[in-house]
């Protein structure tokens, strides 16, 4: 029986990626044996997202993977939190792809991280 789910993302520079996710407000998760090899990040609840060097990620998937193979959706509780997160994303070097606004009956925005991964942020009270 399947018991949990998480994502693995490839990155070009592990230290820069870790700083990016920390700077925009995620909790960094890393076991001592993972230092220099990978790290995870997570929101207040839910499963972590693991970040690994692209070479290792390519070994996992058996091909040369690009940075935008998946859109990861995350929720916040208020429009103000979404707006603040968008500011943090830009300040940390991310690219806002769709500015905060109401779309499809939800307030939110989308962005691309420093390694090309796409994220969707929506307000869900």
TrEMBL record:
Protein name: Member of glyoxalase/bleomycin resistance protein family
Superkingdom per UniProt: Bacteria
InterPro entries linked to this entry: Glyas_Bleomycin-R_OHBP_Dase, Glyas_Fos-R_dOase_dom, VOC_core
Location of the VOC domain: 3-124
PROSITE patterns, A to Z: VOC
